[in-house]
Amino acid sequence: MSQVVAPQPRVVVAFHSGYGHTAVLAEAVQRGAEKAGAHVTFVAVDAITDEQWHELDTADAVIFGAPTYMGGASAGFHAFAEATSGRYLNGTWADKIAAGFTNSASKSGDKLNTLNFLAAFAAQHHMIWVGLGLAPGWNALQASENDLNRLGFWVGAGAQTPQDGGIETVHEADIATAEHLGARVTAQAAALTAGRAALAEVTV
Ligand SMILES: Cc1cc2nc3c(=O)[nH]c(=O)nc-3n(C[C@H](O)[C@H](O)[C@H](O)COP(=O)(O)O)c2cc1C
């Protein structure tokens, strides 16, 4: 069998951020993905362009991000989600990898609802959901709030920023956790594209 050279994974970070905190995490996701070898497109979904829609449609993986507002994803993200209904009907994003992150002011803040919504949104598009892939941090006597995954999520990356803090108060551990998510998704996208390329070479 001939050797397969996998193309560089194309990853889109598609996020909403009303006040900039979630945007800091989106930048961390982008950094993690780029360090892991992805070509990344950074998309603020409330200002999305036609070119960025095209990037979404041709990506190998999409990492969705939204702040948690009123116990769920922000209206800005929901407007974007609803604008994808044509793509849902056409299966445009089927079999792409997906993952998600959120941020809220409270340690819980009901942000699991947001991650679960992002996973359901991806499932509606027939995407392949990748969880965070980290053990929970900060949950034992010797653990620290500086642990990766300090808030103990599995479905995606969850972050907490004080409601009265500026964007510089986004927690370093949450930033590192977001970087991890970007790297993990890139690794999975690379494996999937290489596997699909290898399968295309197989003759039966
Ligand atoms: C309309 C609104 C609703 C919010 N609802 C929640 C909530 O349900 N739970 C929570 O912990 N924080 C809540 N927050 C706080 C935000 O999640 C928090 O400030 C977050 O850092 C905002 O992210 P952003 O700067 O990316 O918009 C809410 C903030 C706003 C403006």
Automatic annotation (TrEMBL):
Superkingdom of origin organism = Bacteria
A Pfam family annotated for this UniProt entry: Flavodoxin_1
SUPFAM superfamilies recorded: Flavoproteins
Q: Which residues form the Flavodoxin-like domain?
A: 11-159
Q: Which PANTHER family match?
A: FLAVODOXIN-RELATED PROTEIN WRBA-RELATED, FLAVOPROTEIN-LIKE PROTEIN YCP4-RELATED
Protein name per its UniProtKB record: Flavodoxin family protein
